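Table S4 entry, Flavin-containing monooxygenase.
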Amino acid sequence: MQVIRVAIIGAGGGGLCALRHLMGPRTKKELNEDRQVQFEATCFEQAAKIGGTWAYTDQVGRDEYGNSIHSSMYKNLKTNLPKQCMAFPDFPFHDDLPSFIGHEDVQKYLEDYADSFGILKYIKFQRKVHTIQPVHQVNALYGLKWEVTTHSVLESQDQGETDVYDVVIVCNGNYAIPSIPTLPGSDLFEGHIMHSHNYRKPESFKDHVIVVLGANSSGQDIALELSAVAKKVYISHKKPPLQSRFPDNVEQKPGIDKLDAPSKITFQDGTSVHADSLILCTGYHYDYSFLAPECGIEVDDYRVMPLYKHLVNTKFPSMAIVGICKRIVPFPFFDIQVRFFRAVLEGSLILPSEAAMNQDTEHDYRNRLSKGKPHRYSHEMSGCMFQYLNELADMADIERIPKNYEVIYDFVAKHRKTDVMNYKKMNFGLNERGDDYVVL
C-alpha cells in the first residue's frame, strides 16, 4: 500500500476537515472500498488551539509572540447562517442550541469535532509555516515533493525544522489580513479609524457618530450592534440601497469620496457628515507569503491562480488550497472540497491535463465577467455555490450536500435582505419527512 505524507497548513475548520477525512475513522462505505493508499498527515497551527478565526480573543494587533492576531470575531457575534446549514454533513450541532449561534458555540463545535474523530494528535501547535517549496524527484507523486519549513512561535531563536511531504493542503483561512482602502484625506482625519478585524465590543463607541464603510455581513452586523450605543450610524456602500428596515439612528449613504480634518467625511453624492469614528468593513487579502514563487501560486487582485475548481494547483496538483471562496457555507464547503481532493490523491478521480484544467478555470472566470461580476469576485459563490459543490461531488463520486442545506440557505438569504434586524431570531427544525426544514 502506498503511503502519502500530507502537510496541512492551519487548524481552523478547513484544516480539521482535512485531518478528519485523511486520518479519522472511516465510514462504513469507506471501509468497503478497496483503497490502495494510506495517509500520514501533520497539521501545523501557529496558535495554541484549534479554531482559526473562530477562536475569539480580546487581543488585537499582535499577540505576545509578535504574530498577527488571526481571529476577526467580535464579542457578541452571532452567525449569519443557521446551524442547520452550517454543520459538516456528518456532524450536526447540538439540538439544544438555537439556529443562530455565537462564535463560542462554533468554537466548541470544532473542538467536539476534533475530539470525536481523534485528530488532535496530528496537530503541531504554535508552529508557524515559514516556507513551502517544491522539490522535484523522480518517482514521487506528480514528480515532486514539498519541503515545508516551520518555526516555533515560542522561541525567537528557533532555527526552524524542515520536512518533506508528498502533498500540501493549505487551509490558512482568509480573514486575517485586512484590506485597507485608500481614502483621500485619511491622513487629515482626526477621528478614530479601525478595520472590523480589530472590532471587539461596542461600549467604547457610546454616543459616537460612526461611519461604517461596507455593507456585507460584517458591515450590517456591526452597524446594528453599534446602533444600540451610538448617537448615529451611517452605512456607506456602493450597492443599491439595502431594502431592509434599520434602527431609526442608522442611515445608508453612498461610498466615501474623501476625508477631511478634523472629522468630516464626504460621500460620493456630495453630502458630508462629521463623525467620531470610521470602521472599515472592507474585507481581507489572501496571504500565501509562505509559498515560494516556485509553487506557482499568484494572487492578482483577489484572484488566486492557477486553481482548478477553485481548489487544485494546476501546475502542481499535489497542492490544494481549501476554502478561498467567498459567500459560502464554510464547513459543508470544506467537506466537499477535501473529499474531492482526497479522491484525486487516492486515484479514484483522474484530473484533466494541466492545459485542460487551465482552460476550464479561464472559462469559469470569463463566465463570471460576462454576468457582470468584477474581477475581484473571481472566487465569489453567490448564486452558484450549490451547483459548484454538486459538480465536485459528482466528479468524485461522493455524496452531495443534502438538499435541505440549499433550501434553508436560500430561505435565510431572502429574509436577511428584507429583515436584517430580526432574521437571526428565527429557529428551524426538520419536517416530518426529514427532507426539508420548517420555521418554528
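The mean pLDDT is 94.
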